[in-house]
Automatic annotation (TrEMBL):
Domain of life from the UniProt record: Bacteria
Protein name: MucB/RseB N-terminal domain-containing protein
MucB/RseB N-terminal domain boundaries: 129-273
Keywords, sorted A to Z: Membrane, Transmembrane, Transmembrane helix
Length: 411
């Protein structure tokens, strides 16, 4: 791996050390596996934090700051996180309601207290979370919405989800397999930062650019920028706590400019040990309790997201052969494109799909053509996907032109 672009070079051994440290410590910073799966699927949490001032801190190189993140050993914390996600998705309006009504309350047949359905709300808009952690066996995250609250509590072997609005409870048990899975998927600013740094090679610039104050804490600003022009990622900025090395804020801005797509971090944080009662939970009287077994819970966050991440980390077409449905990866670094064959037809036109669904699909996608034939490109401000008329899919954090070129080259 090529060295980082900074005053002091970071070698492949340094990068491997970071990964090893991440595997050892990740469980201390994550919520249960069911939450982690949602966080990964939505590409992280996005809080718009109030930065104030530029504290005067000792000079530090990119290598030293990365080492500080790897060495961070915070096990107890509590605080408030503000999340704002702006992928540029269209308002589904009545279509969303009509599709959701077929699957029950939350758009699926699952309990409204099941985190796999409830926490998908974090994929768009602005949200406030209260978080607490006491080592790897005790975490709590509460999503505050208007007068209602949704809480997910991990206390020892028990994992509880509680939705105050419907007075419903979801319960499952953590297992050793859940712990292993926590190490695969990002869920906090720390995890997101380390995932970004894993991609840092000759295609990436990593520098320290000034300081900031986040949630009343002095922090360094670590900036990660793709060098490749085909990526939709503009830059990633990580505010790293100067004292503890814990990432306090993670901001991903798109190459197209404008507001951040992903911006996750604390508005208030304390590193004092939370009270043990913080993680206690007893189902309220009259609450409907749904039991879910551990394999089912871990399965929510496994599946496509986990296997695709393994293939993307390998970064070549050959490495994708073990992925689901013949998943391959074209290219490397920030220009990586995942591709697979659905074995069916592409996106139906409005007339073929009929009704509101057809009109929605036509408005959402752009028709494209090339040597590969014809297809439809679906865009967000970060992830774009090309679905060809013969059922092949190309998806990545790359431009429309990059997707078309990849499909042409594969023809």
């Amino acid at each position: 791996m090529a060295p980082y672009e900074s005053d002091d070079s970071v070698t492949a051994a340094d990068a491997e050390e970071l990964r090893s440290a991440r595997r050892r410590k990740a469980a201390r910073y994550v919520v249960p596996a069911t939450v982690v799966g949602i966080a990964a699927a939505t590409i992280g949490l996005v809080p718009a934090l109030a930065d104030s001032g530029d504290p005067d801190l000792p000079k530090i190189s990119a290598q030293e700051l990365i080492e500080k993140i790897a060495a961070s050993d915070v096990q107890q914390l509590s605080g408030t996180v503000k999340i704002t996600t702006d992928l540029g998705l269209p308002d589904l309006g009545g279509l969303e309601n009509s599709l959701g009504s077929a699957a029950g309350p939350s758009g699926s047949g699952d309990s409204s207290a099941d985190p796999t359905t409830k926490l998908t709300e974090l994929a768009s808009g602005t949200h406030t979370l209260r978080v607490a952690a006491d080592g790897e066996n005790r975490q709590k995250v509460s999503l505050l919405e208007n007068a209602a609250e949704y809480s997910l509590i991990h206390n020892g072997k028990d994992v509880w989800g509680y939705d105050s609005e419907s007075n419903s409870v979801f319960h499952t048990t953590a297992s050793e397999s859940d712990g292993k899975q926590k190490e695969e998927l990002p869920a906090t600013p720390k995890d997101l930062a380390e995932e970004a740094l894993k991609a840092a090679d000759k295609t990436t610039s990593v520098t320290v650019e000034g300081t900031a104050q986040v949630a009343g804490r002095d922090a360094y600003r670590l900036v990660v920028k793709p060098k490749d022009e085909g990526s939709t990622v503009g830059q990633i900025t990580v505010a790293v706590d100067a004292k503890t090395g814990l990432p306090l804020k993670f901001t991903l801005t798109p190459a197209s400019g404008g507001a951040a797509v992903v911006d996750a971090g604390f508005t208030q944080v304390s590193f004092a040990k939370p009270a043990a009662s913080t993680f206690d939970f007893t189902p309220p009287k009259g609450a409907k309790v749904e039991e879910g077994d551990a394999p089912k819970a871990s399965g929510h966050s496994e599946g496509f997201g986990k296997e695709q991440r393994k293939d993307l980390d390998k970064g070549s077409a050959d490495h994708g052969k073990n992925g689901p449905e013949g998943l391959n990866v074209i290219g490397d670094g920030w220009d990586s494109i995942a591709t697979f064959d659905t074995g069916g037809q592409g996106v139906p036109s409005g007339s073929e799909a009929g009704g509101d669904v057809g009109g929605f699909l036509d408005s959402l996608g752009d028709k494209v053509s090339g040597d590969f034939g014809k297809g439809t490109v679906f865009k967000t401000r970060l992830i774009n996907a090309l679905i060809t008329d013969d059922g092949k899919v190309y998806v990545g954090a790359v431009t429309q032109d990059a997707l078309v070129k990849a499909a042409d080259a594969a023809k």
